[in-house]
Amino acid sequence: MVTASSTFGGSAPASGAASPSPAPPTIRVRHLWHRFANRDVLRDVTFDVGPGEIFGFIGPNGAGKTTTIRVMATLLEPMAGRVEIDGIDVTLDPDAVRKVIGYMPDHAGVYDRITVREYLEFFADSFRVPSISVVDAVLELTDLGKLQDRLVAEMSKGMKQRLQLARILLHDPKVLILDEPASDLDPRARIEIRDLLLELRGLGKTIFLSSHILTELSDVCTSIGILERGRLVVAGPIHEISARLEAIRAAEAHGHAPPPRYVPPGVRALVPAQAAQAAPASPEAAGVVQSAPVAGAAVAATDPSASAAPQPQAPQPIPQAPSVRRVKLRVLGNPEAAAYFLRGGPGIVEVHVMGGLVHVGYTGTETKIAEMVTHLVHRNIGIVGVEPERNELERIFLEVTRGDVQ
Ligand SMILES: Nc1ncnc2c1ncn2[C@@H]1O[C@H](COP(=O)(O)OP(=O)(O)OP(=O)(O)O)[C@@H](O)[C@H]1O
């Protein structure tokens, strides 16, 4: 019997793929520009997604996420720059790219008046894959088997979204490109989609997904890229970005020159102000041109400096700085007394009282919060509220973006 796991992704790495690997990137985007009318909506976007990663592409409405995705999905020709999926240039060989990607657009429609099985068999036939065995495997993988005889029209939004995912798995693509896969879903459906994505990653798929909802991504993505007004302001593994920002903050707080900035492959800078200074204002200024089909050959760009694939900067070692986390404590009685007892404690970096709350910076894990609470309770200080800092991804997002829209 064909099973989901034997049919899908058997050859790819099943675990541990998030760590840096010498393998070439599965998705390679270099100096991508796009312009609608006379407005640049993508400006010099460059990033890599390694094999087996779940890459979250984050940005506010209108930042350019869908435009980037449509280029990757071969639906839109870039004005300049180069995009390769699994080593294939999307402009030079879009048909080959389509065979290795499964693309789920935002707000995709589904045919309503057929059953779930009929829907999948229809697409399996159009993908020219053996419909019965593959549809069985996809139904099993996406847990839609019980609903296979149900009319699509009668399915919930979450289930329709799951059906969309099932459809793009039929040809067993290596790379999944999902535009806002969890938007409009209730919390349960969102969690179910997240679990399915993790399962697909376990089968070796590389997953690129976009979202403007940070919390739906933070516990599923291995890496992120943040796009603002068409510019990529940061990209890389979440913990590396976080450690770097922490090191920069610590150095600046002590009046030292910031440590050398970590530049993920191809990304210009971590900090928006620097990105704005460093980035060219137009593809013409950057000397970047589009890869264009030329009879049977990979194309030379017109500008010799751009003709070779642009080389990303080698990543610099990331300085190790202990990551400072923050928590706010609401105490009964005098908050200054609580602050007094916490100052100088192991792992406590800073303590101050503001707005009646005790703000504590600490290093280590969240057990440190439990230790602080115990310590204060033993000194007869009652705790009535504990408010840990924002989640890591929210913190990064707020720090590297400026809230600009285009
Ligand atoms: N076909 C088009 N013609 C003109 N402008 C467009 C077109 N498609 C998108 N845009 C503009 O390009 C910019 C980027 O749009 P895009 O859809 O890529 O953003 P997004 O980050 O996906 O936003 P959202 O989260 O709202 O989907 C927006 O200002 C949008 O209005």
Automatic annotation (TrEMBL):
A family per Pfam: ABC_tran
Single Gene Ontology MF annotation: ATP hydrolysis activity
Occurrences of domain ABC transporter (ranges): 27-254
Span list, region Disordered: 1-23
Gene3D superfamilies according to UniProt: P-loop containing nucleotide triphosphate hydrolases
InterPro entries, A to Z: AAA+_ATPase, ABC_transporter-like_ATP-bd, ABC_transporter-like_CS, P-loop_NTPase
Bias (Low complexity) ranges: 1-20
Coiled coil ranges: none
PANTHER family noted in UniProt: ABC TRANSPORTER, ABC TRANSPORTER, ATP-BINDING PROTEIN
Family (UniProt): Belongs to the ABC transporter superfamily.
Name used for this protein in its record: ABC transporter ATP-binding protein
Species name: Polyangium fumosum
